[in-house]
Amino acid sequence: MLRTLDTFAGRVIALSAILGTLGLIGEVAVILVDVAGRYFGSPLRGAQDLTQMGMVVLVFSGMALCDRQGGHIAVDLFERKMPDWMIRLTDLLGAIAGALIFSGIAWQMWKSAAISQMLNLATNIIYLPKAWFQYYIVVCCIITAVGMLLRVVSLLSGGPIRRSEGHQS
Q: What share of the chain is helix, strand, coil (3-state, %, to 5)?
């Protein structure tokens, strides 16, 4: 059951990462067209709006993948001297804290998106509805939180702990 759930989560996380990749490609295309347009005296209208919303997609799409691959910044000053149970405990507490934080972000962004939708808030230049991007953040934060909760379950059931590069036991 846990393996099936992990496989499904991996596919959802991969989809999120693909959307982030498309966001990056779109971001590069917008900047390229805008810079070329500026050179010829006709910058891309709404480039700032597209860039800002593209960054939302880019950043939040990659969060779950970053966590799944253990790509967060880690300071391992004491890890070499710590026993395995303590490393497992810190991994467990970190995953719980991360899941709670991303759940909190999702909840607050859900409320913010509802307000944005109610007030028809949009970007300044080309009037992209902000609620769409806020709901996207909600979905990405939920995916990240669920991924972290799966790591908690894995750690509690004796799954492997994450070790920093170069650490051998």
A: 75, 0, 25
